[in-house]
Design a protein that fits this description.
445 residues, Protein-Tyrosine Phosphatase, Chain A, 3 domains, 6-stranded mixed β-sheet, 17 helices
């Protein structure tokens, strides 16, 4: 047997890593402080991976040669502190996947907002061009499990800052940084700079043969760009200046990464809204770097289907349109959603606050929002932020009550927007569960 690898956390990435490690002949042990979901229990048994739950597993954890830490486990966790103190090397799941990916190429996407949409569109562009690519990482399937069970020549990976925190050699051929805004500060000692540096880790191992795509209009990215020794070929995107990556001018997008260039009208984009124009530019540049024909990129951008729980139209009832943007889990994401509203809006906000600064939303709320429906256990911070700005602020404790209250305060021509700016764990399993319950409640009106 190979080295003793302990996997901390038995969720999607932990179990995926266990399956890959077992295949690659590590001596694998999975430890979880809580309990395991039935589907993951079955997978571990099926692959004959040893596991333990609860405090009893701690002793085995400390015997590891290396620990793969699931991204959901924070540094302040007692086990993690003990592992660090003993000096046991810690890696993330994407590091393990990278180690065993062979000659495959990686397009990795990170950022505070837009990364899921950009990842999905980039994958869609690859598929359109006939590239056998897998969609992995934060979006659906574990990267490690994909490498173990169904290796592909190209991986399009959505990657969170938590996954980047424990990389060592992970190196994407193409890295995309969509933008950086305050998010997950609870995990970074409420220090924005820690979070920024974490995001920039995506480029730390890149060489001159690799590509780094970023938004030249994002002030935080531009502020920190000079603080890193970036070896990769830089291809910025912008709506303000003509760049050597992609830019939008007079309603047309131009992608120029080499001799050739692509141009198309933003009115032909399948995804509407300014934020989606940035996402589309980033994905198109990645496609061009993969040497995909411009006709294929153009086609993919025009027929891409928007994602569930991301500005997803649910239904129009008696002239009131309902939109599910449950995936907005920070204020910046909600800002983009509100910015694209053109009609009077009833905003459904709230959940687990990750250190939100609601003043960011103040101007847009003043301009567009006629009522706020709070959907969370503790809504005091929302009341404090918007009292005096919005005449109506109501507390609700379930998706059904939130939808009923929103409908009550709406009139024909209004929009009810679920864009919570918060995590969902106080009342729901996750943002998908929140969005699904919202949609069900709308359809039952």
């Amino acid at each position: 047997m190979g080295k003793k690898l302990v996997i901390l956390g038995g969720g999607e990435s932990g179990v995926g890593a266990a399956i890959l490690a077992k295949k690659e002949d590590y001596e694998v042990f999975v430890a979880d402080q809580g309990s395991l979901k039935e589907q993951y229990l079955q997978l571990l048994k099926e692959h004959e991976v040893e596991f333990m739950t609860g405090e009893a597993a701690f002793e085995r954890v400390m015997l590891a040669d290396e620990v793969m830490k699931s991204p959901g486990i924070p540094e302040k966790n007692e086990w993690v502190k003990a592992i660090r103190k003993k000096g046991i090397p810690v890696i993330s799941e994407i590091e393990l996947a990278y180690r065993h990916k062979g000659n495959s190429r990686i397009i990795a996407i990170t950022g505070s907002n837009g990364k899921t949409t950009t990842t999905s569109l980039t994958w869609h562009i690859c598929k359109k061009a006939g590239i056998d690519a897998a969609l992995v990482g934060n979006i659906g399937y574990s990267f490690a499990r994909q490498v173990a069970e169904d290796p592909k020549p190209v991986y399009v990976a959505e990657i969170s800052s938590f996954q980047l925190d424990d990389i060592h050699k992970f190196r994407p051929d193409i890295a995309i940084l969509t933008n950086i805004t305050e998010d997950h500060l609870d995990r970074y000692e409420y220090n924005f700079e820690n979070y920024i540096r974490s995001k920039f880790r995506i480029i730390m191992n890149q060489t001159r043969d690799d590509t780094f795509i970023y938004c030249a209009d994002d002030p935080v990215t531009m502020d920190y760009l000079r603080k890193f020794d970036i070896q990769a070929n830089q291809l910025p995107i912008s709506m303000k200046t003509e760049t050597n990556g992609a830019f939008i001018k007079d309603g047309d997008m131009y992608v120029r990464t080499g001799e050739d260039f692509i141009s198309m009208s933003v009115y032909d984009f399948a995804m509407k809204g300014k934020h989606n124009q940035y996402n589309t530019m980033a994905a198109s540049v990645a496609g061009a770097q993969m040497e995909i024909r411009k006709e294929k990129i153009r086609e993919a951008v025009m027929d891409f289907q928007a994602l569930e729980h991301r500005m997803e139209p649910v239904a129009t009832i008696r002239g009131v349109e309902f939109i599910n943007d449950s995936k907005s889990t920070n204020t910046n994401s909600t800002w983009y959603a509100l910015e694209s509203m053109t009609r009077p809006t009833i905003l459904v906000l709230g959940g687990v606050d990750k250190g939100n600064d609601y003043s960011l939303l103040e101007e847009l709320v003043k301009e567009k929002v006629k009522a706020i429906i709070c959907l969370g256990v503790d809504n005091q911070k929302i009341h404090d932020a918007f009292a005096g700005i919005v005449p109506t602020i109501v507390d609700t404790q379930s998706a059904t009550d939130a939808v009923k209250a929103a409908f009550h305060f709406s009139e024909k021509g209004d929009v009810v927007l679920l864009s919570p700016a918060c995590a969902s764990f106080d009342l729901f399993k996750n943002y998908e569960d929140r969005g699904t319950q919202f949609k069900k409640a709308v359809r039952e009106l």
